[in-house]
Amino acid sequence: MESYGLFFSALMLLAFILSARGGLSSVETGLTDSSLPGYLSFNYARFQGVKKARIRMDRKDVVKLYYNVEVDAGKLIVLLKDPSDGIIWEKAFIADAADTVTLKPERPGNYQLLIEGRDTGGGFDIQWNIDEI
To answer: DSSP letters of 9-47?
Structure first.
């Protein structure tokens, strides 16, 4: 009977830890990654979740965003949000793609680059440079 109490306590502790970390909202299998200032690179067998990077921009800045995306399965979404959480750029991928986009912020602040995997396989390289105009 005591083993049931120990098992239940361990189960409750695991549930608490998972809820504190955001639960199981992100699944990554076969992940290799590299994250540097201005650069994200991830390769994976399966990715379900969100990766984030913060980009600080001023009114006089322009951001050049280069992406190289490989999609073997599922969908990958890349988006840039302004300081008030409004989407200023978004692109969804169901096939391989590479391009460069240039974006000018409407106002200064902390912008968020979000890469969302929806049961996707493949990888991505995303690099950004900020230039003052």
So the answer is: HHHHHHHHHHHHTTTT--EEES-EEEEETTEEEEEEEEE
SS3 8: helix
Domain that holds residue 30: 26-132
- Residue 67 domain flag: yes
- 113: domain CATH number? 2.60.120.380
pLDDT tens per residue across span 43-69: 999 999 999 999 999 989 999 999 999
| pLDDT over 70, % of the chain | 77
Overall number of domains in the chain: 1
Backbone angles phi, psi at 73, to 5 degrees: -160, 160
Its pTM stands at: 0.76
